[in-house]
From TrEMBL:
Gene3D superfamilies: Aldolase class I. SUPFAM superfamilies: Radical SAM enzymes (SSF102114). Its cofactor is [4Fe-4S] cluster. Pfam families: Radical_SAM (PF04055). InterPro entries: Aldolase_TIM, BchE-like, Elp3/MiaA/NifB-like_rSAM, rSAM, rSAM_sf. One of its GO terms (cellular component) is cytosol. Keywords: Iron, Iron-sulfur, Metal-binding, S-adenosyl-L-methionine. The keyword Metal-binding applies. PROSITE patterns: RADICAL_SAM. This is Radical SAM domain protein. Residues 213-441 form the Radical SAM core domain. It comes from Pseudodesulfovibrio piezophilus (strain DSM 21447 / JCM 15486 / C1TLV30) (Desulfovibrio piezophilus). One of its GO terms (molecular function) is metal ion binding.
Length: 453
């Protein structure tokens, strides 16, 4: 049950404290929606509701606001966001790029928040990328203006990995490092509400409050948190030190509920989807197939190629996998920064996908670009190698992430103050490429990706 407060922001019908979760705008040079959802925030709201709180969600990237003019949707519910051009941040004033705020119009958001009745008793603002923090800080300021006495908490990637920066710049009562299921974070939130902390609910961190969206056109699937691997360029261990996997019955129930609401596109958010698949993935896919759900599955986070056996590919194809993304990273197989992958394993996995009946247009392959001291010739070799298979190469632009093993190497290679200013961690500026981003090279790489260079 939900109590109407605003057409898109409704309190759930619980008697506990009212807690508003906010996913703020994206501030960047470019943004594209690839089944994006703030899963960390949705996990927090699910936990809080299960503990008795009344929760609501404002997602500034939510396409379901029918009174907003959105660009025409792309394939499988992906697409562009509305945007408003902003002045460049002072630290980036010398860059000849257009900087924008993406998502719902500012006036719509402010009016919706001001109309909340009753008002929140606590506010959770998330931060998905470190360099998107201006949107989070602005949202905190807006909340302070509307409800100066209501506790404001900042969580997410920026709060966790750039906590010192956030403590200086964010108008928040708590900078929440790590996930809500950490006992210190859980207890502190309830202390700010002047209430005793209830026990952590079952399934803490793996359930998602997806029903807070009105008439969604896609939904995430979260079967696990964290990752058992320690790739040099990834900060998964800093964000979620423990690798945990969910229960297939709970995950299927979430999918079935969204399917009943008309959702047909589901995106896996797991960092290690094919690790220990007997734990939850195989039972889940079996349930989907047996229930006859005519849905489309997508893997935007990429799958580990070495795990693509004939059985794996058959199960995925039968259950409805449409968008296949693979993590090749590089064809320099002797000098990798991720899980060791041999050339033979890559070829076997790629060929097995085709044998299972996946269309070439469905398969995209990520190649790392812009690593510290990377030889561009290796990137070109990888692009041509992927194209020789008939697959579509995608450049995965390197983001120097605090907490990742490679970050100190990135700091040494970059001309920008990566440690002091998270804005320069933005992969759009090619922070570790000599000379940084330039349009001529961008056009050249684009032509190579399309096979015309």
């Amino acid at each position: 049950m939900r109590r109407l407060s605003h057409p898109h922001i409704c309190w759930t019908d619980n008697d506990g404290p009212r807690i508003l979760g906010i996913n703020p705008w994206i501030t960047d040079f470019a943004a594209f929606n690839v089944w994006s959802r703030p899963v960390g925030l949705l996990a927090c709201l699910d936990m809080l509701r299960n503990a008795g709180a009344s929760v609501a969600l404002l997602d500034c990237m939510d396409r379901t606001w029918e009174d907003v003019a959105w660009p025409t949707p792309g394939q499988y519910a992906t697409g562009r966001y509305p945007k408003e051009t902003l002045p460049l941040p002072p630290a980036m004033a010398s860059m000849e790029r257009r900087y924008s705020r993406y998502g719902l119009p500012h006036d719509h958001v402010r009016q919706a928040l001001a109309a909340l009745d009753p008002p929140p008793e606590a506010i959770l603002v998330t931060s998905i990328m470190t360099y998107w923090y201006p949107g989070s800080l602005h949202m905190l300021d807006l909340a302070a203006e509307l409800w100066p006495d209501v506790p404001r908490l900042l969580g997410g990637t920026y709060a966790t990995l750039c906590a010192d920066h956030a403590r200086i710049h964010a108008d928040a009562d708590l900078i929440m490092q790590g996930s809500m299921e950490k006992r210190t974070n859980w207890d502190t939130l309830w202390n700010l509400l002047h209430r005793p902390a209830p026990p952590l609910p079952d399934n803490a961190g793996l359930g998602l409050a997806l029903d807070l969206y009105n008439e969604p056109n896609y939904a995430p699937i979260l079967g696990s948190r964290g990752c058992p691997f320690t790739c040099d360029y990834c900060a998964s261990h800093a964000l979620y030190p423990k690798f945990t996997q969910g229960e297939p019955d709970r995950i299927f129930a979430s999918i079935a509920s969204e399917y009943e609401r008309g959702v047909r596109d589901f995106a896996f958010y797991d960092d290690a989807l094919l690790v220990n698949p007997d734990q939850w993935l195989w039972p889940l896919l079996t349930r989907i197939t047996e229930a006859g759900l005519d849905l489309r599955l997508h893997t935007p986070n990429a799958m580990h190629v070495r795990s693509l056996t004939r059985d794996v590919c058959h199960r995925l194809k039968q259950a409805g996998l449409h968008t296949v993304r693979l993590g090749l990273e590089t064809t320099d197989f002797e000098n990798r920064h991720d899980v060791k992958l041999t050339e033979q394993e890559w070829k076997d996995g790629a060929n097995t996908l085709l044998e299972a009946g996946f269309d070439l247009d469905d398969i995209g392959v990520y190649i790392l670009f812009g690593l510290p001291n990377q030889n561009p010739a290796n990137v070109e070799d990888a692009i041509r190698h992927v194209q020789a298979f008939g697959f579509r190469p995608h450049l995965a632009h390197y983001t120097p992430i605090p907490g990742s093993p490679m970050f100190h190497e990135a700091v040494a290679a970059s001309p920008y103050p990566l440690e002091q200013e998270p804005l320069f961690q933005n992969n759009s500026i090619w922070p570790c490429v000599p000379g940084g981003f330039n349009w001529e090279d961008a056009r050249r790489w684009k032509s190579l990706l399309h096979g015309t260079g």
